[in-house]
Amino acid sequence: MAICEISGKGKMYGHNVSFSQRKTRKVFKPNVSKRTLVINGQKVKANVSTSALRTLKKKGLIELPNKKK
């Protein structure tokens, strides 16, 4: 299951509501990707949500390693 290892975001439940107001169950999943992060000079693999990645980059707590093409 997709859970962010930093923020703890997981799936949420709700309803799909059609035009006729008919409600069916729906699962909202977070946008989680497996990333390699450089934290204190060490490479760490973690499942991180994209919103947590943006926050960490904004605060200057992590660096994303350069990808080689």
Verbal overview:
The chain has 69 residues and is mostly beta strands. It has a domain of 48 residues. It has one helix and four strands. The strands form two sheets. Strands 1-2 form a two-stranded antiparallel ribbon. It has a two-stranded antiparallel ribbon with strand order 3-4. A hairpin with a 2-residue loop joins strand 3 and strand 4. It is elongated. The two termini are 30 Å apart. The mean pLDDT is 87.
The global form is elongated
Helix content: 10-25%
Distance between the termini: 30 Å
Q: H/E order of the elements? A: EEEEH
Mean pLDDT: 87
Largest sheet composition: 2 strands, antiparallel
As a percent range, the share of strand residues is 35-45%
Coarse structural class? mainly beta
Q: Give the beta-strand count.
A: 4
How many helices? 1
The stretches of 5 or more residues where confidence is low (pLDDT under 50) are none
Strand order of the largest sheet: 1-2
Cα-based radius of gyration, to the nearest Å: 17 Å
